[in-house]
């Protein structure tokens, strides 16, 4: 928790109870969160526009990444290595978005010789949770 407060301070963001809770949830999870999903993780009683402002503020400071889903909705995810290109997986049954392992560095070196306009790597299908539940 203290480390997270330091991380925010380094980016010039004041630590508040809610900012720290949001960041803690993002850091502890491999999943990407929409504003609604973040609110649910926080217990559902927070102000949605405040959560939106916190997430977009973290994104503006480069702390978290943003993923545009196939539904056009925005989701936010914490990536420890900010330069890695990380494919994501979207479940077409429950709508969850999770991050797959980052691409190997040899691949990134190769791709960095080109100028990238777009690096959206999204796999879709049925996630392991839904497969287990057999819905
Ligand atoms: Zn699913």
From TrEMBL:
Comment on bound cofactor: Binds 1 zinc ion per subunit.
Pfam family, one: FUR
Acetylation among keywords: no
Entry keyword Zinc: yes
Gene Ontology MF annotations: DNA-binding transcription factor activity; metal ion binding
Cross-referenced InterPro entries: FUR, WH-like_DNA-bd_sf, WH_DNA-bd_sf
Keyword entries, A-Z: Metal-binding, Zinc
Necessary cofactors: Zn(2+)
Binding site for Zn(2+): 91, 94, 127, 130
Name of the protein in question: Transcriptional repressor
Organism: Sphingobacterium olei
Organism lineage string: Bacteria, Pseudomonadati, Bacteroidota, Sphingobacteriia, Sphingobacteriales
């Amino acid at each position: 928790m203290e480390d997270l407060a330091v991380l925010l301070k380094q980016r010039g963001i004041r630590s508040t109870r809610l900012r720290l809770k949001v960041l803690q949830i993002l850091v502890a999870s491999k999943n990407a969160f929409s504003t609604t999903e973040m609110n649910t993780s926080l217990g559902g009683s927070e102000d949605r526009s405040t959560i939106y402002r916190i997430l977009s503020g973290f994104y503006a400071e480069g702390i978290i990444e943003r993923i545009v889903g196939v539904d056009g909705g925005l989701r936010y995810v914490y990536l420890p290595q900010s330069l890695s290109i990380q494919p994501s997986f979207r479940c077409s049954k429950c709508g969850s978005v999770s991050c797959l392992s980052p691409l190997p560095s040899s691949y990134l070196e190769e791709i960095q010789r080109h100028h990238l306009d777009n690096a959206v790597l999204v796999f879709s299908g049925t996630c392991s949770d839904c497969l287990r539940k057999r819905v």
